[in-house]
Structure formats: structure tokens, C-alpha cells
Design a protein that fits this description.
CATH superfamily: Class II aldolase/adducin N-terminal domain
Order of helices and strands: HEHEEHEEHEHHHEHEEHH
CATH class: Alpha Beta
Structural class: alpha+beta
Radius of gyration: 19 Å
Number of helices: 10
Largest sheet: 9 strands, mixed
CATH architecture: 3-Layer(aba) Sandwich
Helix content: 25-40%
CATH topology: L-fuculose-1-phosphate Aldolase
Shape: elongated
Strand order of the largest sheet: 2-5-4-3-1-6-9-8-7
Bound molecules: Dihydroxyacetone, zinc ion
């Protein structure tokens, strides 16, 4: 079997295409990575080139040493992923101490992994440890309504979480821990990676103010579904805000508690008992 026919490549390019259809990946915006399990990469070892040069990641992820990832390429368009995966993404292997990577497959006409590789890998490390290895997908996109919200609300985890929970009944069920917000920072380096991965210890989703969203999940469907849910709630927020400054009614904190009981979810208590935000 060819690498492009593997299950993980098919799912990778499907998410890229789904995100593209949502309009979340203008130009080369957004990026995606998957921590490939040993049993999924093993059948392809003979098709991978283990003689490429080792390149600095720009940060250190010792827990991920020796692991394989498939990542989107820097400057590559998600809109091209489906038609031409071999030129738009790469399989990489990390060095034993987790400071370098080498390209084993893909980016056929040249290029590098995503400019956000430090954030992807630091998020993978944090989420792998926090979930006992369950989380494998890190997805970054640029959804317009969520970005718009970051010009309106204070950039605080609890305020964004509460507001998005209120926008749609399923939100607290889908992200019961809430989500984190990172103030505007220069993207693409270690500094934003450190701040983001610190928030990923607590949450599965982190918003970058005036930029976009990072989601972490066990698989591709759940990563896309989480981003989709958050962006849809943000769209509702923007629609409501576009019509009125006040909410006539909303889902209240006691309602959240009823929801938690009915769906047997453990809501992040830090975000309950807040007075409803005065719009
Ligand atoms: O252009 O989204 O954050 C890729 C990005 C950088
Ligand atoms: Zn981005």
C-alpha cells in the first residue's frame, strides 16, 4: 500500500478539506498535525526515507522523542491538500531527545513543516501526558466569528467560556473544561507555544486573540467537531450582538448545573456562578 492510501493520510486530508470548505483556511492559513501510532506507521517504514537531515524544532519536546507525526507544510494551502497531499504535508520523525526532526515523506517539491511546529509539538506533548496518550490531533484554523469575538470580549478564559457555553446548549457538553484565551502574540515561535501549551494542560481548545483557534482531540473527527462547535457558538454570539446589546434570556448557571447532571458531565466549576456578562 502507498503512504497516500493509508487511513491516517486519508483522514488528515479530509479534515484539511472540511476546514477549507468552512472558509477557515484563507491562503496558507491554519495547520494540522497527527501523532501517528507505531502500529499505523510500521507498515510504511520501507516507504519512508530515514536519511534526511536533522533540523532544529526550535523548542524541546523530550516526551515525544522518536515519534512520528504527519504535519501540514509551511506556506502550503489546505485547499490543495486533497488533490496533492504529497506536496502539501510531510511525515516527520523526532530525534530521541525531542529537539530535532527529519522529513521522511512528503513535501516532495521542497519545503518545511508548518511554521507553528513548536506550538503543535508542545501541545502534543502536554496533551499526550494529560490524556494518557489518548489525544493525537492538533488542529489550528482561522474561523472568522471566533476571531471577531476577540475584539469584543475581555481576553479571559472564564468570560469566553461562559459566553460560548451560553450560545448553544451542547457547548458545555462538548467542552466541559472550557477553553483558554491567549492575548495577541507573534505567531510561529516558541514563546506563543509555551503560553498555548500551558493552557492546553487545562483545556482542549485555546483561542489566539485576533488570529484563530487551536484544538486538541483523540481523532480527526473530534478535532474538527470541536472547532466547528466553538465557531458556530461564536457565530451565534456575533449574530445576537449584531442585533441587540442585551440578551432577553439565556442559559443560566443553574441551567448549566441541570445539564451537567442530565448528561453526567463534570463542568469546570471555575466558570459557574459568574454573573451573566453585561453586554
Ligand atoms: O499561516 O496559520 O499561524 C499558517 C498559520 C500561522
Ligand atoms: Zn494561524
Amino acid at each position: 500500500m502507498k503512504v497516500i492510501d493509508s487511513d491516517f493520510v486519508k483522514k488528515f486530508i479530509k479534515l484539511a478539506d472540511d476546514g477549507n470548505k468552512m472558509g477557515w483556511h484563507e491562503r496558507n492559513g491554519g495547520n494540522l498535525s497527527y501523532r501517528i501510532p507505531e502500529e499505523e506507521i510500521a507498515p510504511f517504514h520501507s516507504k519512508l526515507n530515514y536519511s534526511g537531515e536533522w533540523i532544529d524544532i526550535g523548542t524541546s519536546v523530550p516526551e515525544l522523542g522518536g515519534m512520528h507525526f504527519i504535519v501540514s507544510g509551511s506556506g502550503k494551502y489546505m485547499s490543495n491538500m486533497l488533490a496533492d497531499p504529497e506536496n502539501n504535508c510531510a511525515i516527520i520523525e523526532l530525534s530521541g531527545e525531542g529537539r530535532k526532526y527529519r522529513i521522511l515523506w512528503g513535501l516532495k517539491s521542497g519545503g518545511r513543516p508548518t511554521s507553528e511546529l513548536p506550538t503543535h509539538l508542545m501541545n502534543h506533548e502536554v496533551k499526550m501526558v494529560a490524556t494518557g496518550g489518548e489525544h493525537r490531533v492538533i488542529y489550528h484554523c482561522h474561523p472568522a466569528n471566533l476571531i471577531a469575538m476577540t475584539f469584543i470580549l475581555p481576553l479571559e478564559d472564564k468570560i469566553f467560556t461562559h459566553e460560548l457555553w451560553e450560545m448553544m446548549t451542547e457547548c458545555p457538553i462538548i467542552f466541559p473544561n472550557g477553553l483558554g484565551v491567549v492575548k495577541w502574540m507573534v505567531p510561529g515561535g516558541r514563546d506563543i507555544a509555551v503560553v498555548t501549551s500551558e493552557k492546553m494542560k487545562k483545556y482542549d481548545a485555546v483561542i489566539w486573540a485576533h488570529h484563530g483557534l487551536f484544538c486538541s482531540a483523540p481523532d480527526f473527527d473530534l478535532a474538527f467537531g470541536l472547532a466547528h462547535t466553538i465557531e458556530k457558538a461564536a457565530e451565534i454570539f456575533i449574530k445576537v450582538r449584531s442585533v441587540t446589546d442585551t440578551k432577553r434570556q439565556t442559559i443560566t448557571d443553574p441551567d448549566f448545573l441541570k445539564l451537567a447532571e442530565a448528561f453526567k458531565i463534570k463542568l469546570n466549576n471555575d466558570f459557574i456562578d459568574l454573573p451573566t456578562l453585561d453586554m
